[in-house]
Amino acid sequence: MLAFRFLRALTLVHRTTPNSSNAARSRRIQRAAFASMAYSAGPRRAWSRALLCRFHFHRARRRCAGRSRTAGVPRRPSTTGSPADGLRRLVPGGTEMDYCSLLEETADYIRCLSKQVKLMQSIVDSVGPGGR
Amino acid sequence: MDMNERDECSSEKNENHLNYHNAGFSSGWQFRNPSVGIVAGDQRGSMEESFNPSLWKLCESDMPAIAKPVPATSRFDDDGWTPPDSSSRGGSFLPGGPAILSPTLSHFPADSAFIKRAARFSCFNAASLGGMATPFGASHLAGAQIHNIDINMAKDASLHDVDPGEAADLGGGGHETADSSSKDLAAKKRRRPAEELEVEQGDPQMAAAAKRESVDTDHKAEQSSSTAKPNGKHAKDASDAPKEDYIHVRARRGQATNSHSLAERVRREKISQRMKLLQELVPGCSKVTGKAVMLDEIINYVQSLQQQVEFLSMKLAAVNPRLDFNIESLLSKDFLQSHGGTSSAIGFSPDVVHPQMHLSQQGLVQAEISGNLNHPNAFRRAVNSMPNAWDEQLQNVMQMAAFSSNSQQPRTQ
Predict the structure, then answer these.
(1) How far is CA B393 from CA A1, A5, B92, B281, in A?
(2) CA-CA distance, B129 to B134, in Å (whole number)?
(3) How many CB pairs under 8 A join A and B?
(4) B295, B316, B396 ranked by CB distance to A83: nearest
(5) Chain B 35-94, residues with CB within 8 Å of chain A CB atoms
(6) pLDDT at position B116
(7) B237-283 confidence digits (pLDDT tens)
(8) Above 0.85 for ipTM, yes or no?
(9) In B73-231, which ranges are E strands?
């Protein structure tokens, strides 16, 4: 599932932005990667929901106003002195979870991230050195 | 044997350590009602050894006699309590007694005559309750009630003074008269019989259950002095239910067992489980011990994964075209991989996939080579001829690949 979504998104990106710079395209591809990850994970997971919310939110906001930063904005300050602050910032939607579910979401997020990385790596490898 | 025991009881009122123990232990046992009801069957056999074997045998010999009210009552006439009085007393509290007993003694015969007898001789109860399970515990409760009803039991008034205090302390009923000092004393005294119990027992289940019960009563008593008493009682009641649900969560020795600490322990175990999962996921974390270091490792790993995604996306942005064939092979590989794993339930074998793939590959190759607009139609036909079991996303992607290949060819060539 992840492969299909991502490849479709990838081809879309390449098709629709042939003239934009590599940086912009890479950003779009990265977003596409996260979006496909979130879609394939489904709404069961808090991190995927947070990612999807962020994407829809960003898309709506981009239409209305300028770009917003892609980093997750913590809705409420994390508990002081908590050892999991760094993790909360990394995992999407992590600021609003208790520690126990944060660990579970982190595990799932790591699994999906590693799948995504493997997929992208295999795409890059199969394209080969002579990409153009 | 009967006389000896009862004389012992009657002579020593407050200082009778054994009675105190027994009373405390019995009251400790009496209102673990659901759990004791469950565990009592196991424990009774082993408890008789630990606690005053002669007493137990006495009680055991009494048990069958209980069924016959007439000989039972006749045995204890010389105690000074007239049978009619006791029967009236028994009758007065009988409606309450069995009612109280029934939820707790589901598998013990709530014999009314037995209850009557047991209630009458509270010292006997106190002495024997230590070695007994629920029936005597319940009768002790009944005995406590009797105390409220009948002042004639002056002989055991002292014992009853102690007992309701402990009973209240342990949430046994509505007797909220114990003060903290007696509670703590009772807790300490209760601890000892429990310790004796577990030291003498070889049965681990029994010991664990006894530990659980006694430690619970211990800490319940101790904590209720610090926390509000009604809260403690509710907490105890609440802790009973979760203890029954999570029967595998044992209050280990020396650990607090009120509901908060139990919940925290469950939470901590959950957290440690998840940390173990994470340890397996993150490579190179198996030798790391300690939560803080593990967390740092996990954070580093997640950061590195995200950086890899960014790097690869940059690479993919640069390495744009030539995706058609690669998509094909990738799709076949990933599709087979994913469906090999997931669709086995559907009975979808990869062998079925291959011929279709071959067909679509041919279509793709033709589309690529000729670069003609007609060939996407051929390709589309090939795609549409795929079995319905195929994901339509796959078809979409194939179409996209065809389009992209078609669109790219003028660019590349």
Answers:
(1) 9, 8, 79, 30
(2) 8
(3) 159
(4) B295
(5) none
(6) 62
(7) 444 444 445 556 666 676 677 888 888 899 889 988 888 888 888 88
(8) no
(9) none
